[in-house]
Amino acid sequence: MIPKLWWWILAAAGVVLLVLLRRVARRALRRWAWRVALRTRRELGFRLNPVTVTRKQRLKADLMDDPKLRARITAQAGETGREEASLLADVSLYLDEIIPNFNLITTYTFGKRLAGWLLRTCYRVRIGRSAEAALNRIPRDASVVYVMNHRSNADYLLVAFLLANRVSISYAVGEWARVWPLERLFRSFGSFFVRRRFRDPLYHAVLERYVQRAVAQGTTQGIFIEGGLSRDGGLQAPKLGLLDYMLRAGAKDLVFIPVGINYDRVVEDSNLVRESIGKPRRSPIALVRRTSLWLLGLVWRGATGRFHRFGYAVANFGPPIHARAVLAGADLRTLDWEARRPLLEAFADSLLRAVGAQVPITPVAAVAWVYRSLDDPAPGRAQVRDHLLEVLAGAQERGLPLYLPRGSFQRAFDVGLRVLLLRRILVLEGGRLLLPAHKASLLAYYAQGVAHLLDRAQTPCP
Fold this sequence. Notes:
This protein has helices at about 1-45, 55-65, 65-80, 85-100, 105-120, 130-135, 155-160, 180-190, 200-215, 240-245, 270-275, 285-305, 325, 335-355, 365-375, 380-395, 410-420, 440-455, and strands at about 125-130, 145-150, 170-175, 190-195, 220-225, 255-265, 310-315, 320, 425-430, 430-435. The protein is globular. The protein is built from 18 helices and ten strands. Strands 1, 2, 3, 4, 5, 6, 7 and 8 form an eight-stranded mixed sheet that branches. The chain folds into two domains: about 45-125 and about 140-260 and about 320-355, Glycerol-3-phosphate (1)-acyltransferase; about 365-455, Arc Repressor Mutant, subunit A (Orthogonal Bundle), CATH 1.10.10.
């Protein structure tokens, strides 16, 4: 009896000790995290977004009590016959889904370093153009929105990394990222999730009030004007939803900064091209298997010293666009949808043109466009080079957003052709460059990304 009793006493003491150690460890971890967060915040040198740093539960409670949202709930209850308590439960679920859970340590201690390592491992990361002087003149109390074209899911990392020492951006992220561990990561970075093509009017009312609160409080946001990834490489028609919410937020000064993004290789290009030519999407299992094999191939080439970076990843930042000046003082809050839609469409088109004017002409895109512009189905290397140098000279004369490695036209040709040959998009045989039939759509994808710019380089100067 005595030995058995002592075993029970020791077991109980062990459980109590584990509980105490757990509490001590949690307190120590919290104190460490708090010290790191304070040090990181002091080192940043800029003001963090007021909405993203607000505790999620507090922000949720404030939005649940929002008078405009409450009025929408009451109106929908009357229209549908549902009880308000049921609609409030839906609102609570939507807010849990939308509101980010920003973590300063995850973003600026680990996230920034991880993003930098990933990007620099795969690309030569560059800022091509930066309207630094104009950006510095933006008032501190203005609400700023970075408006970008959407080339790759790496866009989130690229722009956030390039701006990490200047501003914290809250992104609108699609449903593709609502999988573990991406969902937790994006939430900790301050991003909010948006359901595409979801028709519930109550959901859009909740999203509208969240976005408007963020804009009114000066949260710096990042949106993709096209709404989703470009499947064919060209710019897509602008989406109006988030733009409509922002312009009716009542911000004192709403400023849009156009950002053009381009890559010498878009990681998911084969899947995007596959969708653009009407082929069915790969199943999730097939996609995971293909991605895993691709990653293993990269690791193997890195281990054997045969890994080559994908080329350049470049972002251009254009001059700020003040919404009040473009809209000529029109207050969209006082207009119904039919009255404000033409104004929204005109404003969105102007933003799309501004973004398109900043899309970098990278080496691969330039070589791809030149190859497709030649009538010869198998041009010689020298023929492609000479035509490219002529096109780049014309583009530079017109002030188009060229990115020239080391400032050299010849270097741009060498880099672009090298990437295309390594990927077997073009094949060099007997001094001539051949395009395999199954790679034609992939070459067109990269050419189409800068066609709206380089087509202008072929017209005579006025």
